């Protein structure tokens, strides 16, 4: 309910920003005067962006460490876990690749014709100097304290991976208080992120008002095209996921899609993976997936297999690069995909995590983080589609892993009865399965 109110507040902020920007655009007697008025609106946006940057480092560290330590020693994970992670990796990479290819094909960002802000121009690594050598030497931190102080996401990721794997391997030897402290830190950062996101309507108001003050209402056409292009890209991703599922399950994949229509509708209407989770488990059981498989794979999928979010992250990042007329080579785009794949694992379950991942990745490639706020103006509409896509991807993944692990009953054309109790999501988000707490737009 709170997330629905936030979405409504963001839409209101966008509409007010459009109205304020239009009035200022009409009253400005010269382009210079319009830019001066836009600078005043940008102050509000800058405050919101600083709040976003404030939470990124501790959020990624605590989220990735708690997730990896929960998995534990890879030898103990078992075949199902390893197969699931393998599927998640392939699906995530395919999703990112689709987003990259279609973002280049549509090339919508250039229509916005924005100027790189002074703050964004110097942020992160210069695209001209970004190559394999610089990338490799940059990701290994000489000091984790320095990396966190400078908000350098890649060194933080590397340290977090080592820390999380080591903690998982030593779980039985470590005091429980240490493990619970890391998980508690992540819960706290989730709460702080939730507070920060309530400043989003103000940030959206300032960003939209500033752009329309300078450019007028013409940029709204680009927004409409962007939403349409993203939904078309999601349809392409659906086709790829169904084709992959058909390769393993055969024709029953179509029965599975029919059976998960209800959780898909719930996900679309609420933009919440958490709301759709219980019904998804139930329908997977009716399809023939044994609960011992679905209860293990599905929560894991909500942390590592957010296909709709992955596709959108790549699409949106390249849209921002195009909007500011910053050219990224194919090699730079490819490295960006890999960075997003890693970063997204550290913020699974964060409200509007796709925005957080994009904000963390842009500075690494010399892209202005200010572009993120422009996306927030329409994120509510895209959130519904990518959450639904996550439900489809996670359902297909659960059925495929069940097939591989002999945990799938032969499809007879009729739904199986519910022979076991179906778990429900706890009311307290902190006690929900990994990746599901505050899972809006985790997606």
Give a quick rundown of the structure.
The protein contains 18 helices and no strands. With 443 residues, the protein is mainly alpha-helical.
Description:
The protein is mainly α and 443 residues long. It has one domain (2-431): Proton glutamate symport protein (Orthogonal Bundle). It is 74% helix and 0% strand. It is built from 18 helices and no strands. The chain has helices at residues 2-27, 31-71, 74-106, 118-121, 132-139, 144-149, 153-169, 176-197, 200-215, 219-249, 252-259, 261-270, 273-287, 291-304, 307-323, 330-346, 353-361, 371-404. It is globular and about 70 Å long. The two termini are 17 Å apart. The relative contact order is 0.18.
Write out key terms for the chains shown.
cell membrane, mainly alpha, 443 residues, Proton glutamate symport protein, 0% strand, transmembrane, 74% helix, symporter activity, globular, disordered C terminus, transport, Na+/H+-dicarboxylate symporter, single chain
């Amino acid at each position: 309910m709170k997330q629905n109110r936030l979405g409504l507040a963001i839409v209101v902020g966008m509409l007010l920003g459009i109205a304020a920007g239009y009035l200022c655009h009409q009253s400005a007697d010269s382009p210079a005067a319009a830019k001066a008025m836009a600078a005043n609106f940008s102050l509000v946006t800058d405050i919101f962006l600083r709040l976003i940057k404030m939470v990124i480092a501790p959020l990624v560290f605590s989220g990735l460490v708690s997730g990896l330590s929960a998995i534990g020693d890879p030898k103990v994970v078992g075949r199902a876990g390893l197969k699931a992670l393998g599927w998640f990796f392939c699906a995530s990479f395919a999703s990112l690749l689709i987003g990259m290819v279609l973002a280049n094909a549509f090339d919508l960002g250039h229509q916005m014709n924005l100027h790189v802000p002074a703050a964004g121009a110097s942020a992160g690594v210069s695209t001209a100097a970004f190559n394999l050598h610089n990338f490799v030497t940059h990701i290994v931190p000489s000091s984790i304290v320095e990396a966190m102080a400078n908000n350098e996401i890649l060194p933080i990721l590397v340290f977090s991976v080592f820390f999380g794997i080591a903690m998982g391997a030593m779980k039985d030897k470590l005091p429980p208080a240490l493990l619970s402290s890391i998980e508690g830190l992540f819960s706290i950062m989730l709460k702080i992120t939730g507070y920060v996101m309530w400043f989003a309507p103000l940030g959206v108001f300032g960003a939209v008002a500033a752009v329309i003050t300078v450019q007028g209402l013409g940029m709204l056409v680009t927004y409409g095209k962007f939403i349409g292009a993203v939904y078309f890209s999601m349809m392409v991703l659906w086709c790829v996921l169904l084709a992959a599922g058909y390769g393993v399950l055969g024709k029953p994949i179509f029965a599975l899609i029919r059976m998960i229509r209800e959780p898909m509708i719930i996900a679309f209407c609420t933009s919440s993976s958490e709301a759709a989770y219980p019904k998804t488990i139930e329908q997977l059981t009716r399809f023939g997936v044994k609960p011992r498989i679905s209860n293990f794979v599905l929560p894991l999928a909500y942390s590592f297999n957010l296909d709709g979010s992955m596709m959108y992250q790549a699409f949106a990042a390249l849209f921002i690069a195009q909007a500011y007329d910053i050219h990224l080579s194919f090699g730079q785009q490819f490295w960006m995909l890999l960075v997003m794949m890693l970063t997204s694992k550290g913020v699974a379950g964060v409200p509007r995590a796709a925005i957080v991942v994009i904000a963390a990745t842009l500075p690494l490639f010399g892209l202005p983080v200010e572009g993120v706020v422009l996306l927030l103006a329409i994120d509510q509409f895209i959130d519904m589609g990518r959450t639904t896509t996550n439900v489809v991807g996670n359902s297909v993944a659960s059925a495929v892993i069940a097939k591989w692990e002999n945990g799938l009953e032969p499809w007879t054309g009729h739904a199986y009865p519910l022979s076991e109790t179906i778990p429900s999501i706890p009311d307290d988000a902190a006690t929900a399965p990994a990746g599901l707490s505050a899972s809006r737009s985790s997606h």
